[in-house]
Amino acid sequence: MVKGAIIDLDGTIYRGDILLPFASEFVHNLRKNGIKILFLTNNSQRTVSFYKRKLNKMGIEVKDSEILTSARSTARYIKTHYSDPVVYPLGEDGLISELLKNNIEITYDHRIATVLAVGYDTHLTYEKLKKASLLLQNGGIFIACNPDKSLPSEEGNIPGNGAQLAFLKEATGREPYIIGKPHMPIMAEALNILNTSASKTIIIGDRYETDVLAGFRAGLMTALVLTGATQKSDIQNRKKPDFVVENLKELWNLLSK
Fold this sequence. Notes:
CATH architecture of the largest domain: 3-Layer(aba) Sandwich
Distance between the termini: 8 Å
CATH superfamily of the largest domain: HAD superfamily/HAD-like
Number of domains: 2
Strand content: 15-25%
Strand order of the largest sheet: 5-4-1-13-14-15
Low-confidence stretches: none
Shape: globular
CATH topology of the largest domain: Rossmann fold
């Protein structure tokens, strides 16, 4: 039996505002069997409090300490690795609130900023991108919350943080240091929070290119749930996860054997 579970949210526990089948029962079974849980999302737009309220409303009781967002991990990384950073944020409440919680100075003047932190921003403008580009051209540190090129929505896939990063990379020739899945900064923090060994920890998600690849890189067990972005046909010629399941009920039946 595993000791810890890192669980993606959108596409794994819920889709939009709809709780996915067996999600609540799956979390209950993990807790009942003493398995530590950490909900991990690449979405930097929302705050930890937002996700806590959303999960609680869906009947899944969760503590702040059981939620890790790419925004939270990004702010902690900047705080830990840079002395007196002054951050120009491209992002929304999730990123900005985490920067402030970590007592990191924020500015919207690209001329005095030392770090550019890029998170998903639905209020993105050309002016913001211009200032970010100038900051990078002047030697600013380039940090990104996550690389997701698109996000699922009721209308279809819409541009994600990776699309914003593509603009900046093309404009400046700079490559960002990425914190979120499938990269190691957020995975190392997740394992540290759970205090479990990689070999006894499983990552569960619906995206091969983020969740599963993150698990491979960190040495975790991996489970791909076919309730979101990735379908079985998408991984035919790729390294297979430890588990490929239709839903979380099927996954629990396999884990509890």
